[in-house]
């Protein structure tokens, strides 16, 4: 997705949220998506994700997890659901070398690799796009 497509999608999303709010749905419910979870929804119309990586840091492909992480500044939920992966598995690193990693690390590597190959923007890229569009904090 290029910047023009992302901007068009963002505008369509905002239009649909406005329709839900006009129909009586609370804004904090209308605005919730699985992609927006960075800040307290009651205080912002647009949620700006703050990446773990600084704007000066290079996005090293070996830092697969950090490329999609964002700082959390909201209220900690009452409960958290997660998955636990056990064991050590064999796989290849980005250079084609055989390595042993824990299962959870392989899952994260594969997810990040799939996201990058699919053209999904990293948290830093989304943050830069937000800043360019005037949504920065």
Q: What can you tell me about this protein's structure?
A:
The protein has 137 residues and is mainly alpha-helical. It has one domain. The protein is 36% helix and 7% strand. The protein has a two-stranded antiparallel sheet with strand order 1-2. The longest helix is centred in the N-terminal third of the chain and has 20 residues, at 3-22. The two termini are 24 Å apart. 9% of the residues are buried.
Strand order of the largest sheet: 1-2
- SS field, number of helical segments: 4
Shape: globular
The biggest beta sheet reads: 2 strands, antiparallel
- Beta strand %: 5-15%
Tally of strands: 2
> Order of helices and strands, N to C?
HHEEHH
Q: Give me the secondary-structure category.
A: mainly alpha
First-last Cα distance: 24 Å
Uncertain runs are: 35-45
| Count of spatially separate domains | 1
Helix content: 25-40%
Report mean pLDDT, rounded to a whole number: 77
Radius of gyration: 18 Å
Describe the secondary structure blueprint for this structure.
Elements: H1 3-22, H2 27-30, E1 88-92, E2 98-102, H3 103-117, H4 123-132
Antiparallel strand pairs: 1-2
Summarize the structure.
The protein is mainly alpha-helical.
Features:
single chain; 137 residues; mainly alpha; two-stranded antiparallel ribbon; 4 helices; globular
């Amino acid at each position: 997705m290029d910047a023009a497509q992302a901007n068009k999608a963002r505008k369509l999303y905002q239009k649909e949220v406005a329709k839900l709010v006009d129909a009586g749905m609370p804004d904090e419910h209308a605005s919730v998506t699985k992609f927006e979870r960075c800040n307290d929804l009651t205080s912002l119309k647009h949620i700006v994700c703050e990446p773990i990586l600084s704007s000066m840091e290079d996005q090293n492909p070996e830092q697969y997890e950090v490329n999609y992480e964002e700082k959390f500044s909201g209220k900690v939920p009452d409960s958290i659901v997660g998955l636990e992966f056990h064991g050590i598995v064999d796989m290849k690193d980005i250079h084609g070398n055989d390595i042993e990693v824990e299962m959870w690390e392989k899952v994260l590597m594969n997810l990040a690799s799939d996201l990058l190959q699919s053209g999904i923007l990293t948290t830093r890229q989304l943050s830069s796009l937000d800043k360019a569009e005037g949504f920065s904090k």
